[in-house]
Amino acid sequence: MTATRCPSDLALEAHLLDPARSAVAGHLEGCPGCRERLARMEREGAEFRQYVYPATVDAVAQAAGPRPRRRWLVAVGPLVAAAGAGLVFLLWPGPSPDYVGIKGGALGLSVFVGGAEGVRAVADGEGVPASAALRFQVRPEAPCRLWIVSVDASGQVSRIFPAEGEGGAAVSAPGPLPGGAMLDGRAGPERIYAVCGREALPYARVEAAVREAAGGGERAVRAAAQLRNLPEGSRQATLLLEKRP
Amino acid sequence: MSDHREQAGRLYREYGPAVYRRCLRLLGDRERARDATQEVFVRLVRDMRRLEDRENVLPWIYRVATNHCLNLRRDVRRRGEEALDQGLELAPQVPADAYPERQLAQKVLSRFDAETQAVAVGVFVDGMEHEEVAAALGVSRRTVARKLDRFLANARKYLARGEP
């Protein structure tokens, strides 16, 4: 036995990384239990190098590469032209009373996808063509400042609406949003968030929350139904799309 | 392969084992740990400069991996999937009277916010001193003490009432 308290796993990690500067080497000499812990950690490290690293390094390296170009093509841009906006709204009607593409409580988000069969609302987790054109509709409970953003399995966070400015777009009533988006053509999950703040909400704050919740691969995107660390009173809604080739 | 990618591969080889061990410890499942390791490192390589900072990188890795894996545990439970509902064993150096049981049940952990969960796991599962937890999570010692007190008081209540 040794008189000093057994080191934490984190302290043992530091020892494994740099044994020459270890603060726990003395303890390890006198503690068979900790030597056994260390041996187990080394076995797990070998397991990583043998099985995990080869299977996952490509995905990690790819994530470290240069950022892909902006993936979303804002289909109709700011739509300041009234005629253009009218045309779009005609082409993209509102949801039927029984539509299911809405998630969230005090803030509702509907996502519509266009295709050969016309426009339809998308259900949470539903498969859509990887290059589908999307439109959005929100239903705020009260006036607020809205952002629509998305994140995919590579961790890329895309700003969808509003395309310009800071603080979010002021919305106060249910309705379709101007503009739209085109998916990037890559298969995999894409999660869309609507976030609405009581007051001006910096985009950086929303982006950080999305990265924190969902910026870690396919599983994280699928699981991240809740954003954290948003300003108090912020409302949010989300919907998952599965992009199919 | 670009320089960035080579650098990421090298850093992954060096620090990946620490992430994998962390995920294995918190998820208790090799397949989930493998996926989580990749997901965590995808997040880490976005800040390559920080990852190259040998003096300070380990607490950061610990924090990101811990938060990610605790999130996974919460989400899996929320979806009703199997296998992560087992508790986390307390570290051997944690005194017998420090906590009513020798493991932290997921059902108890899930009652607390993410930061409180990380504090409780740091102290009871990883066997860290308050100061070490504070440094690893990037919070003050006072925050650690406060969150731990609240965790203990409420966890004892839940367990005494037979909850969950």
Q: In words, what does this structure look like?
A:
The complex is a heterodimer of chains A (245) and B (164). Chain A is α+β, with helices and mostly antiparallel strands and 245 residues long. Chain A is 31% helix and 28% strand. In chain A, strands 1, 2, 3, 5, 9 and 10 form a six-stranded antiparallel β-sheet that branches. In chain A, strand 2 and strand 3 form a beta hairpin. The longest helix of chain A has 33 residues. Chain A is elongated. With 164 residues, chain B is mostly helical. In chain B, strands 1-2 form a two-stranded antiparallel ribbon. The longest helix of chain B is centred in the first third of the chain and has 25 residues. Chain B starts with a helix and ends with a helix. The model of chain B has no long low-confidence stretch (mean pLDDT 87). The chains are: A alpha+beta (245), B mainly alpha (164).
End-to-end C-alpha gap of chain A: 60 Å
Low-confidence stretches of chain B: none
The number of distinct β-strands of chain B equals: 2
What order do the helices and strands of chain B follow? Answer: HHHHEEHHHH
Distance between the termini of chain B: 51 Å
Biggest interface in this structure? Answer: A-B, 46 and 54 residues
Summary keywords:
heterodimer, A: six-stranded mixed beta sheet, 12 strands, about 30% helix, about 30% strand, elongated, B: about 160 residues, two-stranded antiparallel sheet, 8 helices, globular
Secondary structure topology:
The complex is a heterodimer of chains A (245) and B (164).
Chain A: H1 9-17, H2 25-30, H3 32-64, H4 82-91, E1 102-103, E2 107-115, E3 118-121, E4 126-129, E5 133-140, E6 144-152, E7 157-161, E8 169-171, E9 175-176, E10 181-182, E11 188-197, H5 203-214, H6 218-223, E12 235-244
Parallel strand pairs in A: 4-12
Antiparallel strand pairs in A: 1-2, 2-3, 2-5, 5-9, 5-10, 6-7, 6-8, 6-11, 11-12
Chain B: H1 3-27, H2 30-44, H3 48-51, H4 57-78, E1 88-89, E2 103-104, H5 106-109, H6 114-125, H7 130-137, H8 141-160
Antiparallel strand pairs in B: 1-2
